[in-house]
Write a structure and sequence with these properties.
The protein is α/β, with parallel strands linked by helices. The protein is 31% helix and 21% strand. It has a seven-stranded parallel beta sheet with strand order 3-2-1-6-4-7-5, sandwiched between helices. Helix 2 links the parallel strand 1 and strand 2. The protein is globular and about 55 Å long.
């Protein structure tokens, strides 16, 4: 029986920031709508790096890099993943629509569909929008969404942490878009 050992960082074969910048990204943008926690923002950056997403758009009160608390969770991903800030979520989504990006809200609504049932197509570009930890997606931008998806939950809690939700959603899109 062989012995299993953990790999050391240098054995993982990870790319450097410059190579990451030149790597073809999956056609996915993550938009954070008034996410208040710097740890959540950092975690989203780190996951976005792992799944080579195109960029992150930070909106409203969402904190922006550089900041020590974001860096704690991001571990340098704010340097690799492209990002920009847009004060108004409505403006951010309008700009993405102009680029023919399909806008997907991650939210429990009367019209949400299970993320497993959503048809992700390789010939499309998507934006996953995640909202505030308490209030969810901003109401004023609801008209801009092409679809709302939710992650099935069978326990007693009604929601997931926004960075956990982002990770699950990014993984679902990554699997089908890579």
């Amino acid at each position: 029986m062989s012995t299993t050992k953990k790999l050391k960082l240098e054995e993982l074969g990870r790319i450097d920031v410059e190579t990451f910048k030149q790597t073809e990204k999956i056609p996915l943008i993550v938009v954070l709508d008034n996410v208040r926690s710097m740890h959540n923002v950092g975690a989203v950056f780190r996951t976005a790096d792992a799944f080579i997403i195109e960029k992150i758009v930070l909106c409203g009160i969402t904190p922006v890099p550089p900041h020590r608390e974001i860096h704690k969770a991001a571990l340098g991903a704010t340097e690799s993943v492209d990002w920009n800030f847009e004060k108004e979520i409505s403006t951010a989504l309008q700009n993405l629509k102009k680029e023919n990006v399909e806008i997907i809200g991650i939210e429990q609504t009367t019209n949400s569909q299970n993320i497993d049932d959503f048809s992700i197509q390789k010939n499309k570009k998507y934006a996953l929008v995640l909202g505030n930890e308490v209030d969810g997606l901003s109401d004023e931008a609801f008209k801009s969404y092409d679809a709302f998806l939710e992650i099935p939950q069978l326990g007693t809690k009604h929601s997931l942490n926004v960075s956990v939700c982002a990770g699950i959603a990014m993984w679902e899109f990554f699997k089908k878009l890579k």
